[in-house]
Structures are given as C-alpha cells and as structure tokens.
Amino acid sequence: MKPFRVFAPYGGAVDSAESGKVARPSSWWIDALIVIVFVAVTYGVVAAASHWVAPLTAQPHIDLSPTALPVYAGLSTLRMALAYILALVFSLIYGRVAATRRSAERVLIPLLDILQSIPILSFLPGVVLALVALFPHSNVGLELAAILLIFTSQAWNMTFSFFHSLRVIPKELGEAAGIYHLNSWRRFTRLELPFGTIPLIWNSMMSWAGGWFFLMAAEQFTLGTHSFQLPGLGSYLQAAANAGDLRALFFGLLTLALVILALDQLLWRPLIAWGDRFKVEQTASGQAPTSVVLKALRRSALVEWVSERVVTPSGEAFDRAISRVLPAPAIASAGASMSRTASVTLASDQPVPRSAVAPPAPLHHLQQAARALTLRRIAGLVLIGVLIVVSVWGAVSGLRLLATVTAPEWGEVAVSTGATLLRTTAALIIGVAWTVPVGVAIGLNPRLAARAQPIVQVVASIPATALFPALLLVLLSLPGGLNVASVGLMLLGTQWYALFNVIAGATAIPSDLREASAIYKLRGLRRWRYLILPAIFPALVTGMITATGGAWNASVVSEYVTFNGQTHSVVGLGALIASSASGQNYGLLLAATLAMAAVVILLNRLVWRRLFRLAEQRYHLD
C-alpha cells in the first residue's frame, strides 16, 4: 500500500509514513548559488521597474545585435511571469467557483467560452489605448497592456483544466472531506488543489508556451496611425522578421530556446517531480519523475531554514485566520462509510479518523456561518449589480458600432466564418490524430518524459509567427498557397493544448490500474479501449476545448501574414479581424469578433459540453 500524502499548503508535502526529520547532507555551494540567483533576479526586477517608470516611448529603437538579447529576454520573461501569476490566481478562483456552485456554472462557463474565443487583437484597441491614456507619462500603461494581453493567452486553458479536475474528484475523497468536517478553505487546500495539481502543472507549461506564441503581438502592435512597441524578445523577433534579417531571427529563436530550456530545468521539472506525490493510487509508481534541481533544493540548509522559520509559520497563521472566517460546516456528510475512506489517498494534515460521523459544530460556528453567508449574499448582489450596469453600457456601445457595419460587410463576415471553421476543424483533426498516441507514450514513461518534455516545450513555445514568414515564400509556391499554409500555422499554435492535456491525463493514471491491466493481459487495442482512452478522456476533452478556442485565436496570425514589408492574406475571420484592427474599422472588428465568439460558444454547447458530461458521468475515477 502506498502511504497517503499529506499536503502541507505552506511547507510542502511529505509522506505520512515518514516520522521525524530526514537528515540530508547540505552543501554550501547550493546556498551560495541560491543567494546569487536571488540577487540577480532582484536586480533584474528593479532594472525593469526603472524602465516602467521611464517617460513613455511609443517606438523605442530595437537593437538587432545579439548583445541586446539577454536584456530583451529578461524583460519578456518578467512580463510572462507577471501574466502567469495573474492567470494562476484567476484560474484557481474562477474554476473553483464554477465547479462548486451549479448556479454560478451556468453563467461562468459560457462566459469563459466567450473570453477564450475572443482573439488577442480584439483586446488591443480598447486595452492599449485606455491604459496608455491612464498612464500618459510613463511606460506603465504599455507594460500593463502587454501583461494583460499575455494573460489572455494563458488563463483560459488553466481555468478549464482546474474546473474539470474539480468536477471529476472521486466520491470517496469528497465523502472523506465531509467526514473530516473541512470548511471550504481547508477542502480547497487539502483536497481540491492537490487533486488538480498534476493537470494544472502541465497546463501551466502550455500557458507559457501560448504566452511565447503571442509574445510578438503583445510587445509590438499597430493601431491605425498609432504604433506601440516594447523592448523584448517578441519585438526583437518581429523587427527581425519585418526586416528580413534571418541572422537576427536565428539568434532570437536560439535565445528563446535557451530561456525555455532553462525554465524547464529550473521550474517545470522540479514541479513535475514534486507534483507526482499527489497522484491518486493505491500502490507506488514503479518509475517516478525526478529533478536534479529539486534534489539540490532539498539539500539546501537555507531553503530548509526559510521554510521552517518563515514560510510554514506565516502560512499556518494565515490558514488559521481564514479558517476562523470560514467555519466548518455544521453537519458532516451523511451516510459516508469509513470502510471506503480508510484506504483513500487524501491530502490532509491529520490522520484519517476511525469515527464514521464527526460531531455537530457548536452554536457559535453556526452563527459565524450565518454571518458569512449574509456577507457573501450582499457581496454577490453588489457584484451582480455592477455586472448589469457594465453589461448594459457595453451592449449599448456595441450596438452603436454594429450599426455602422454595412450589408456587404455582414456577408463578408459570414463567408469568412465558414472558411475559418473549415481550417480550424482540419487543424484540430490533424492535431488530435498525432498528439493522443505521442502524449500517452510520454505520460506513461517517465524516462521518455524527461527527454521529450524539454523538446516539446521548445517546439511548442517558438512563436510560429516568427518562423512562418521565413517559410512563406516556399509555402506560397505549394498547391493551395496560403490556404494550406494557414492550416499549418494554426496547427502549430493549437496542437500543444491537446498534447499537454493528454500527457497530464496519462501521467495521472494510477499505477494499480496499469498493474491490473497487465494482470488481465490487456494489450494493443483492448488496452486502449478499456484503460487508456477512458482514463485520458476527461483530459482529452479539456485539451480539445482549449485547442478549439486556440485555433480560432491563431487564425488571426495565420490568415494575415506580414513579411519583408508585404502582407499576404486569405478569406477568413482571422484575416478580417487583423485587417479591421489595422485599419481602425472598429464596427467590422466587433462584428467579426462576435461571429467568432458565437461559433466557439455553439461548438462548446453542442459538442464539447456533451462530451465532458459523458466523461464526468462514465469515466470517473471512483
């Protein structure tokens, strides 16, 4: 029996079988290296902050020499990190509210469908101009605009992943949480967050890849006569592509690849190795992912001291404060059987009790719960009121813009929608056809994952918009021209959503199920039919939902390509959005954006939601 994992939200996770501290030899050079890295990162953040408060420079000179690349890489990485933190917080809050409240789900999930279907260029005019006007004398507005635009390419797949993870939590774990008498905060930190850790980590990697993909659009953009630019890797690659400087383009892509590899070894590999402890299984995995960096951090006396003296005490104090605001429920889950939960892998900070039902909460807990419920209702009513006012104002403004769209332009929107729908469908079919077998192979083999993961991240993160123009002359000579080439570029931007989710789903398959399939001698198609496909089905549906939204977003940069001063486009909704944004035709831009959102929402309602309901009802890990 694999010992259950104890999730200590602020001090890490340890095995319940461990007693006392495990003495590990510390190395002084690890502590010295950590201090050096900390000082370097602090200096970089301070230097970037000085650029933020500098006078506004809409079109700074982009130096295409390789010596400027380290500074540009640091600036872009900082924007990506800030956008990711914002996306992670958004995903955890939004996903949990949608997953735990049916009434909220009816509003939040369709709203999320709309948000993920709106392309990044549709955010540009309002976001950029408003933030620049808000901070007219510094670069703060432009920096915040870039961060928010990168956020829109990172948040949606993480939110869908966490929402779907919460909806397929095994019933045994939910019943055990009820028997533990956990309030909403402790249920989140002890059960929900640990259960969603593995898919959240893999979707975080996908979010970073998506951020790199749209980095060029976020750091350099043109709105009619206004041109805005921020120094960074994205603007460097865009400037190199526009100038046709293949040497600078090569060095820019090489720098991007090195940054991605460094992040893989310093961040993602340690997180994957650490997150393996939250896999729901009864027997220990034969091969667990490892990380040299994680092993080194565990040998650091400095990290141990900070964790014990700073992180853990402050985290526990915060945990107690939140728990006092959100008291435990008055009545535990009725009918829960401890015979089922005694062997459950539950992330908690206490051993599983033997009693079947917890005693009722004291009267003051009921009073606190009533007050908290009243405050939540008042806050909810205020929020609903604000949303109604904003929605009415936005609807009136939108109708005024749509009134300027002519009948021929509406016809162009309809034709463009059909053309882009065909391209996105073709890209999705091709992507799923190869990502499912490859993702399963990587997810089920930790050794292969250790080798393939950096390669996949680099390939997924390279902005195809930078690589595509260099191949444009060759692709235009092929049959179909840009119509076929745009499907290829769209595929480069969307297939990774399916791949990373399939890897996460295959990684989370419990070892005991894999051992049972070996005992029953399931091989070939029978193994795929009875083990692999049912196990990865929820993750695959999540990947296809986000890939569909990503394909429509990628149409903006795949159907409208600028290289060496020349623009190439095809009939499509993405090209229509790009040309409307460039020409400041905001009425047509809104019409095309609404058409894209409507198609994505219909697909999600009619196809993907039904598939996920099937996954939630039939392919549930119980």
At a glance:
This protein is mainly alpha-helical and 622 residues long.
What does this structure look like?
With 622 residues, the chain is mainly α. It has a single domain, classed as MetI-like fold. Helices cover 73% and strands 4% of the residues. The chain has 23 helices and six strands. It has helices at residues 28-52, 69-100, 102-117, 120-134, 140-167, 171-179, 184-195, 197-213, 215-219, 233-243, 246-275, 292-298, 301-325, 338-341, 363-402, 407-443, 446-461, 464-476, 482-507, 511-519, 524-558, 573-582, 586-618, and strands spanning 5-8, 12-15, 220-223, 226-229, 560-563, 566-569. A two-stranded antiparallel ribbon has the order 1-2. Strands 3-4 form a two-stranded antiparallel sheet. A two-stranded antiparallel sheet has the order 5-6. The longest helix has 40 residues, at 363-402. Residues 1-23 and 331-359 have low confidence and may be disordered.
Briefly, what CATH class?
Mainly Alpha
CATH fold-level name: MetI-like fold
Helix content: over 70%
Q: How far apart are the first and last residues' alpha carbons, in Å?
A: 17 Å
Rg, nearest Å: 25 Å
Question: What would you give as the CATH superfamily?
Answer: MetI-like
Gross morphology: globular
CATH architecture: Orthogonal Bundle
Q: Which stretches of 5+ consecutive residues score pLDDT under 50?
A: 1-23, 331-359
Classify the secondary structure makeup into a structural class.
mainly alpha
Instruction: Give the SSE string.
Output: EEHHHHHHHHHEEHHHHHHHHHHHHEEHH
In what range is the share of β-strand residues?
under 5%
Instruction: Describe the largest sheet.
Output: 2 strands, antiparallel
Compute the number of strand runs. Answer: 6
